[in-house]
Amino acid sequence: MGSNFKFASRPDVGIERWNYCSDKFPDAWLWHRWEAIDAYATWPGTTDASFALLDPVSSDPVALVPLHRILGPRPIRNWAARFESTGGPAYAETLSARQRGHAERDVRSTLLSLAAQSQVHRIELAMAPLAPARQTRNGINPLAMLGCADASTQSWILDLSGRDEEALWQNMEHRVRKSVNKAERNGVRVRIVVAGDFPDFLRLHKQAAKRNGLPVKPNAYFETIFCDFIANDRAIGFCAQGPDGQTIAIHVFGIYKQGALYWVVASNPEALRCGANDLVQWHAIRTFAKRGITYYECGEAFPGTPDGKLRRISDFKKGFGGDLAPYYRGNLNSRPRVAAVLSLLRAIRGRGMRGDT
Q1: CA dihedral defined by 333, 335, 340, 341, rounded to 10 degrees?
Q2: How confident is the model at residue 313 (pLDDT cuts 50, 70, 90)?
Q3: What SS3 state is found at 119?
Q4: What is the per-residue pLDDT for 40?
Q5: 237 and 344 in one domain?
Q6: CA-based nearest residue to 29, from 66, 74, 61
Q7: What is the pLDDT of residues 127-155, one digit of tens each?
Q8: Structural domain count of the chain
Q9: For residue 346, how many other CB atoms are within 10 A of its CB?
Q10: Does 96 reside within a domain?
Q11: Same domain (yes/no): 194, 102
């Protein structure tokens, strides 16, 4: 295997080879799958820019980089455009230490070259905490090897291995156990999602987005999750129904490489009031353990933030008994002056925002 790697766009690699490498590379997780990249490309102002590096002799991929170009806010959409890599670079396990170094060098140079061509000011990368390569928890941000400025946070991850149902139950916070019991007393029932639940999910999502003042995500995004992930056992959903049989909450979890991730959720105020969301989580945790899933990532954590929406979300995820694990992130400023101006504007706007917005 050589070290003068060749660039290939995602279409040039093709879906079969791309997904085969996603399945094999230890840095890769669900976000590297072809269909996940397509799903995120349905978001407004988002286009795919993913690429691979190929061995010059065999033409086999040695690195996959999921990448999207995202427009900035109006009226500076193109001026404030950025690249975002959910999942970050994933490398072939067969690379030697020297070849891995060359691959990291070439990934960096390719990112910066594409950024110049696409006129993006910033490249934001995030490594999936559930990727097999991240489970060693060695504390080293792999994005440092690309020269990225560290922007890491943390995520709540629940270790399911060696725990029976009683141990998992006792591991949850008392508040959550109380809420689960309340939901069951109120007649809430939970079942696995089926294809016919898709309209209910869209209805609940649109209601929740309006209630929280958030943009509605495209139907095509959720259609991909239901049709390409749930239908192919790379995701599972749980539906909570009230005593009258009405659907009040649907939670969907990504499943890949013996890990499960809290992915998308749609619920109404009744689900919050009666404890349905906690009950759904408990059903999911039990199901994951029975299926032999090793880790459940409840989601990004914000334990140090002041009381507000982010803190409440973080505390909700914390209640299921997970521990904090590194969520490695890094940034490359491809147009430093533009990035500095936009960073200042974000800081000014942030100081004027309340904690609950």
Answers
A1: -140
A2: confident
A3: coil
A4: 97
A5: no
A6: 66
A7: 999 999 988 756 789 999 999 999 999 99
A8: 2
A9: 10
A10: yes
A11: no
Both 173 and 276 in one domain: the answer is: yes
Domain coverage including residue 242: 157-327
Closest alpha carbon to 343 in 84, 75, 149, 122? 122
Cβ count within 10 A of residue 319: 19
Four-CA torsion 237, 137, 144, 29, nearest 10 degrees? -30
**Mean pLDDT of all residues belonging to the chain:** 91
- With pLDDT > 90 as the criterion, what percentage of the chain qualifies? 80
Tokens (6 digits) for 120: 């993006």
Residue type, 324: L
What confidence tens digit (pLDDT) does each residue in 168-226 have? 999 999 999 999 999 999 999 999 999 999 999 999 999 999 998 999 999 999 999 99
Domain match, 37 and 175 both = no
Q: Give residue 346's pLDDT.
A: 65
| Domain identity same for 336 and 260 | no
Residues 148 and 187 in one domain: no
CATH number at residue 173: 3.40.630.30
Q: Tell me the pLDDT tens digit for each residue of 22-33.
A: 999 999 999 999
Buried b (16+ CB within 10 A) or exposed e, 283-305: bbbebbbeeebbbbbbbbbbeee
Phi, psi of 85 (to 5 degrees): -120, 100
Mean pLDDT value across residues 82-99: 96
pTM score, two decimals? 0.90
CA 357 – CA 354 distance, rounded (Å): 6
Residue 29 lies in a domain: yes
- Residue 241 shares a structural domain with residue 130: no
Among residues 75, 128, 95, 278, the alpha carbon closest in space to that of 188 is found at 278
Q: Quickly count: other Cβ atoms within 10 Å of residue 170's Cβ.
A: 11
Same domain for 141 and 214 = no
- Give the residue-averaged pLDDT of 269-286: 95
Where b means 16+ CB within 10 Å and e means fewer, 74-88 reads eeeeeebbbbbbbbb
Asked whether residue 1 is domain-assigned, the answer is no
